[in-house]
Amino acid sequence: MTITTMLNFLFPPPPSLFVTAMSVISFVSLANAGFGEVRGKHLNYSKFWNANSNNNKNATGKKDMKLSSKTGMLLLYTPAFLAGAASFWIFPHQSFRSTILQSSVTFHFFKRLVEVLFVHKYSGSMALDSAIPITLSYFLSAATMIYTQQLTLDLPEPQINLLYPGIVLFVVGVIGNFYHHYLLSKLRGKGEKEYKIPKGGLFGFVICPHYLFEIIEFYGFSFISQTLYALSFTIGTTFYLLGRSYATRRWYLSKFEDFPKNVKAIIPFLF
């Protein structure tokens, strides 16, 4: 895709060294994390909270600090939610596109907090050295996406307007992600901590449909925003979730002898 073709879909990149640097850093760091998941170098949360347990010492030789999964997840999402909420006060003069983007980003992380508090059931821990970079990534991505949108206020609109398709993708992603999180929460009865093979929804086709819908949600952000930063972050996130879902499927295959081999990682029938 040439630059000229991309500019039909995107605002011209703003003359901001910060935004340019964040576009590169977000893509590279997320894509690298995705490839790390494939290689077995996991961020220590969810099923992989205790991955590489023989090597979980820091440079001083001391054991890494761990948080309860619930506390860790609250830490992950709260700063990004606050950044989205505060943006309505920091940037009071907004375009319709900016308002939709800010609302979408803020709602995304608000939904996450609600799920942590009232939907998900946790059994493990989260390594602090995994929680901190993820928290920073979410916070910086939310703040940078909103800030970058403000820099487009005086720029001409892209020739092809993707705002309304973006809203549709965002809504579909939110609903699908929440529904499959709800199905996961119902796998465990009261007091149960063991993992089970998920069923219902798209779990008969892929083991991580919640990741699939999260990707759809982030492409909704990109379509609403139509900035290079939002697209860079979304593509990086896609690589990360592809890698994480691949590792998750590999984990289920190793743990359950009866795991159905036809169930893919994240894309039905393909991957």
From TrEMBL:
Ranges of residues in domain 3-oxo-5-alpha-steroid 4-dehydrogenase C-terminal: 162-271
Keyword Protein biosynthesis attributed: no
Localisation per UniProt entry: Membrane
Superkingdom field: Eukaryota
Keywords from the named record: Membrane, Transmembrane, Transmembrane helix
Pfam families named in the record: Steroid_dh
Name of the featured protein: Very-long-chain enoyl-CoA reductase-like
Gene Ontology cellular component annotations, sorted alphabetically: membrane
Annotated GO MF terms: oxidoreductase activity, acting on the CH-CH group of donors
Topological category with respect to the lipid bilayer: Multi-pass membrane protein
Family assignment from sequence similarity: Belongs to the steroid 5-alpha reductase family.
One GO term (biological process): lipid metabolic process
InterPro entries cross-referenced by the UniProt entry: 3-oxo-5_a-steroid_4-DH_C, SRD5A/TECR
Transmembrane domains' residue ranges: 16-35, 72-90, 126-148, 160-179, 200-221, 227-247
